[in-house]
TrEMBL record:
It is a multi-pass membrane protein. It is found in: Cell membrane. Belongs to the UPF0324 family. The chain crosses the membrane at residues 39-59, 65-82, 103-136, 148-171, 183-204, 249-269, 281-300, 306-327, 339-364. Keywords: Cell membrane, Membrane, Transmembrane, Transmembrane helix. This is Sulfate exporter family transporter. InterPro entries: UPF0324_pro. One of its GO terms (cellular component) is plasma membrane. It holds the Pfam family Cons_hypoth698.
Length: 366
């Protein structure tokens, strides 16, 4: 009799799905979908990103390939991991927060004295070269029927400091206006163009019989990546390397004003109530901190080891940001874009070199 009553009552409230296969599966799904507490939510994405970035660093050290390019390629090859939602928090944290901290640390390489040492005329010519690169990037995007924001990133990366500038500008543009796939392809193009320029531009300078000062200005004003610009110039001579370092770091100094100007012109990425122009003058927090670090570096003679450690940390964080961005990109969109996506980078790179060579030939930078 008691057994009959138990069968009539059914399972106890604490065990609602016992004997029900569908209910047990549903209960298991609910358990798996439960949110992971605390910092553990970021671990899967960060761990995979760190492993990929470490592999990129190892390959770069042993084979001499630019580490940013390797991080992009490895990230694209592993982008299937982003299908698992558990990786999203970590990858997004790396691609956004690590990027901004890396930009801030880059400020330890820059000081106001570098602009003063360059001189008024070479600095004015440098601004014109950068403007030409921006215009060429936008024109290349228009001719290849790409988004103008892709041209903006290509021009900015070419004009200022390669992938670092592209990452900073993408923080303003946002994935709402330019897909991560297009952004990743822009970074690949910028990194490859910079690596190619490091090999070709010193040879062109030697063929044209440029002086050390001219070669340093040409290479420092036209090669995108900081390390590759300085390395390419030192391949000419030590004097050319010193000149190129001053010119290149002067370009890096202009990162904050350019990002501020772009933020003012294009406005916020996310939809929302329109803000008055005076409020759009507010800089992103990481650019404000970048300027603060530049000011400290200009006023205080920091130990050389501090700048070295800051540069290493900046490179590591930017590598993680690039790798995470590539992992979150859709390769099917990359295939749809095809060769046209490389047009803005090609146009900006060629225009930047041509403008720098023109100013060198008329005597700027002697």
């Amino acid at each position: 009799m008691k057994d009959c009553e138990a069968m009539t009552r059914g399972p106890a409230p604490s065990e609602p799905y016992r004997g029900d296969l569908f209910g047990e599966i549903h209960l298991a799904d609910m358990t798996d979908a439960a949110p992971t507490p605390g910092i553990a939510r970021y671990f899967p994405g960060l761990a995979i990103c760190a492993a990929a970035a470490g592999a990129a660093g190892w390959l770069s050290d042993h084979y001499g390939v630019p580490v940013i390019l390797l991080g992009l390629l490895i990230g694209l090859a592993l982008n299937f991991v982003a299908r698992d939602a558990r990786t999203h928090r970590g990858l997004d944290f790396a691609s956004h927060t690590f990027l901004r901290i890396g930009i801030v640390l880059l400020g330890f390489q820059v000081s106001i004295a570098q602009i003063v040492a360059l001189g008024a005329l070479p600095f004015a010519a440098l601004i014109l070269i950068m403007a030409v690169a921006f215009a060429a990037g936008l024109a290349g995007a228009r001719l290849s029927r790409q988004s103008p924001y892709a041209g903006l990133l290509a021009g900015g990366a070419t004009a200022i400091c390669g992938a670092s500038a592209a990452l900073a500008l993408y923080g303003i543009v946002g994935k709402e206006r330019l897909s991560q796939a297009q952004f990743a392809l822009t970074l690949v193009g910028v990194s490859m163009a910079s690596a190619l320029a490091m090999s070709l531009y010193p040879a062109i300078a030697a063929e044209l019989e440029l002086s050390d000062a001219q070669a340093g200005y040409l290479i420092g004003a036209s090669i995108h990546d900081v390390g590759q610009a300085i390395g390419g110039a030192y391949a000419v001579s030590d004097a050319a390397g010193i000149d190129a370092t001053i010119v290149k770091l002067a370009r890096v100094t202009l990162l904050a004003p350019v990002v501020l100007l772009v933020s003012l012109v294009i406005g916020p990425a996310r939809a929302g109530p329109s803000r008055p122009s005076w409020r759009r003058l507010g800089m992103p927090w990481f650019i404000t901190l970048f300027l603060a670090v530049v000011a400290v570096n200009s006023l205080i003679d920091l130990p050389a080891v501090a700048a070295t450690k800051a540069l290493a940390a900046s490179k590591a964080l930017l590598l993680l940001a690039v790798t995470a961005t590539a992992m979150r990109s859709r390769t099917d969109l990359l295939l749809e874009l095809g060769w046209r996506a490389a047009a803005p980078v090609m146009a900006a790179s060629l225009a930047s070199f041509a403008a720098a060579l023109f100013f060198v030939m008329i005597g700027v930078g002697d």
